[in-house]
Amino acid sequence: MANYINNKLFLEQIINYKNLCKETADKGMISPKIPEEIGESILSIATNLAKRPNFSSYTFKDEMISDGVENCLRYLNNFDPEKSNNPFSYFTQIIHFAFVRRILHESKHSYIKFKSFEFHELYKDHSLENKNHIDLIKTILNENTQHIIEKFESKMKKKTKEAVPVENDGSYADLEEFME
Fold first, then answer.
1. Under 8 Å between Cβ of 111 and 149
2. Which pLDDT tens digit goes with each residue over 136-159?
3. Residues whose CB is less than 8 angstroms from the CB of residue 46 and which lie 6 or more positions away in sequence, other chains included
4. Are residues 36 and 66 part of one domain?
5. Are residues 99 and 154 in the same domain?
6. Residues 103 and 144 both lie in one domain
7. Predicted confidence (pLDDT) per residue in 64-115, tens digit
8. Do residues 4 and 86 share a domain?
9. What number of H helices and E strands is found in the chain?
């Protein structure tokens, strides 16, 4: 466990908040605002998780952290202190999977953007005066985007192969036959 979160205090704060929520629900009132301390703890977990080597190189780290915090606040009431006394682990898992979803979302959008560049050949703008400049843009875009396009398409092929039923001899059935 990390040294920036006191797990026992965090657990106590969550239990107090959940008890307060139960009291207000019994009275027919709106749930109370989440305490500042819980929000700070969740933000601290998300910020420090984003510093790990497997997440640190992304340019959209702020969006990852925001997604993680949002998911934690959404599922705060699902934490059951009777089943677990480790809220740090619970919220770290939620944040981790939010990060993974954001990475997949961003990679899909990068693929769409670069594929549209490739398809529409936007980088072949012949209105540019310098032919060398056009060639340089094409080279840079081809080198940088081709890797992203190939990586995303290979993932999609793996998903498609998993969805297509397997014949008796172990080979994949024809996708068109499967669709009929």
1. yes
2. 666 666 666 767 777 777 877 777
3. 64, 65, 68, 69, 72, 95
4. yes
5. no
6. no
7. 999 999 999 999 999 999 999 999 999 999 999 999 999 989 888 887 877 7
8. yes
9. 6, 0
**Nearest-angstrom CA–CA distance, 2 and 47:** 12
Tell me the three state secondary structure of residue 165: coil
Per-residue burial over 59-95, b if 16 or more Cβ lie within 10 Å, else e, is eebebbbebbbebbeeebeebeeeeeebbbebbbebb
Residue 115 counted as domain residue: no
The 10 Å CB-count burial string (b at 16+, else e) for 2-18 is eeebeeeebbebbeebe
Token pair recorded at residue 128: 């540019």
Rounded average pLDDT over 6-26: 94
> In total, how many domains does the chain have?
2
Report pLDDT digits (tens) over 162-175. Answer: 554 555 554 444 54
- Say yes or no: 98 and 10 in one domain: yes
In this prediction the pTM is 0.71
